[in-house]
Amino acid sequence: MAMITCKECGKEFSDQADKCPNCGCPIVPKSVIYVKVKKEKGVWSTGRLTIGIISIIFFLPAIYSSLIIGIMEESDTSLMSGFFLAIMLLTAGIVGICSRNSKGKGGAIACTIMYWLGAILTIKASVTYVIWDVISYIFGTVFLISAIKTKKSK
């Protein structure tokens, strides 16, 4: 029988006890090994988060500009396509943030589709949407690359 020192109170006691008789601190058997598992982030997690936040922020100016363009041009087509693009920016931003740490490809592919769909549907609507089309296309491309680089989890 050996004596061990309590890690909490510093008193010595028998190694046969399951806890310190002085303070009650439990004794961990030496045969038990604790392994801390580090949670891995998904591919380009920070990029997905950043683009998601920027996309949500861009929702407001995109919806505002679609309203202005729709009123100035008196075109329902222009108004609706700009509104659709703004909704796609918002939705893809939220999905991108929620799926940023996912090891699956579904969230990134869904964001790619939403960004590109928003860009494609506003290409012919108005020249003013060109900046939103380019931004949406770039964001979709980044999410597509992150989907390609994502490896299946085991």
Description:
This protein is mainly alpha-helical. It has two domains: 1-34, no CATH class; 45-149. It is built from four helices and two strands, in the order E-E-H-H-H-H. The chain has a two-stranded antiparallel ribbon with strand order 1-2. The two termini are 45 Å apart.
List key phrases describing it:
single chain, mainly alpha, 154 residues
Brief sketch in words of this structure:
The chain is mainly alpha-helical and 154 residues long.
Overall mean pLDDT score? 81
3D shape: rod-shaped
Strand order of the largest sheet: 1-2
Task: List unreliable stretches of 5+ residues.
Answer: none
Query: Helix segment count?
Result: 4
Radius of gyration: 28 Å
Total discrete domains = 2
User: How far apart are the first and last residues' alpha carbons, in Å?
Assistant: 45 Å
Helix fraction bin:
55-70%
* Computed structural class: mainly alpha
Topology:
Layout: E1 3-5, E2 12-14, H1 45-73, H2 76-98, H3 106-122, H4 130-149
Antiparallel strand pairs: 1-2
Helix pairs in contact: 1-2, 1-4, 2-3, 3-4
